[in-house]
Amino acid sequence: MSDSFAAGGARDATFFLASLRGDGAIDAVEAIALVGGTIIAHVALNAAVSHMAGIFDADPAGLNAPVIVLDVTGADEDLLHEVVAAADAIVVSRGARLVIGLDLPQIDPVAAALRDGLGSVQLLCESDQAEWISAIVIAAVRDTGLFRSADEERQRLAQLHEEVARIADMLARLSGRDDHSDRAKDRRLSFALPPIALDLPPRAVRDVIRARRMRDRFLGEGLFEDPAWDMLLDLFAARLERRRVSVSSLCIAAAVAPTTALRWIAKLTARGMLVRSPDDEDRRRSHIALSDESAAAMQRYVHALTSANLPLV
């Protein structure tokens, strides 16, 4: 296994690893060993900030900068926020690569600490060894463009990109816009917007979501995974309800594994379809919503379905 990953350049990568204890993060350690990487330091989280600063200060050009791997599972929110925010600042200022392992209850505080956005980091929520290996390889060779994992993983990533592009293009056409140049800009949803001019009660959208989940109950899980659309529906319903949605809540709405949901959120945010906004009262929380363009496109889509006497599914 390690030979195929090494072909992509992962064997030459170095890693800075921090976990609650200096001997923790077993999955990360094993994944790095399997791909042939080198751990240059493995420290406890409470010492991670100073160690990271020292490493990157010693290499201001980032020529030999390691991949930062944080396993924050078990950490309290204050320590988690401090370490993740410090790593995020290094990502922004030095172009570092970052992988974070976390527990399900930590999704919201980790997302809030990542002010640069979810697209610049790989988040692994209660992930297995295979997902750790994939994340380590992608982080190790991201700058070189030489990613060489198993054929199945390459195909899965390609399908992911294609599906996101398809949905983005569909919404762009429905909104009457073909230019995506403004979509990648960070926009915060104003909750003082006037009510949506659409004769569709939120309950109607919630009923669609409920019907989609019933398929899994009767026909088995894993057959109808469509996380991008499930998230767009949930956020559309929330907008109609004038309700804010947390990142963790949106992961649940996606009806897939948390790591997969986080990856989709990052992709949709990068496309400008979703926007994040901090919680003004709690720095450890953030909210996510449809961008104004995506909301308008969803309205037009529903109107088009209604005009054609077709159901929203």
Task: Give an overview in words.
This protein has 313 residues and is of the alpha/beta class. It has 2 domains: 2-141, 3-Layer(aba) Sandwich (Rossmann fold); 151-307, Arc Repressor Mutant, subunit A. 50% of the residues lie in helices and 14% in strands. It has 12 helices and 8 strands. Strands 2-1-3-4-5 form a 5-stranded parallel β-sheet, sandwiched between helices. It has a 3-stranded antiparallel β-sheet with strand order 6-8-7. A hairpin with a 2-residue loop joins strand 7 and strand 8. Residues 1-8, 143-154 and 177-196 have low confidence and may be disordered.
Keywords:
50% helix, 313 residues, single chain, alpha/beta, Rossmann fold, Arc Repressor Mutant, subunit A, disordered N terminus, elongated, 8 strands
Q: What's the quick description here?
A:
This protein has 313 residues and is an alpha/beta fold. The chain has two domains: 2-141, Response regulator (Rossmann fold, 3-Layer(aba) Sandwich), CATH 3.40.50; 151-307, Orthogonal Bundle (Arc Repressor Mutant, subunit A), CATH 1.10.10.
Tell me the helix content.
Answer: 40-55%
Overall shape: elongated
Average pLDDT, rounded to a whole number, is 80
Strand order of the largest sheet: 2-1-3-4-5
CATH topological fold name of the largest domain: Arc Repressor Mutant, subunit A
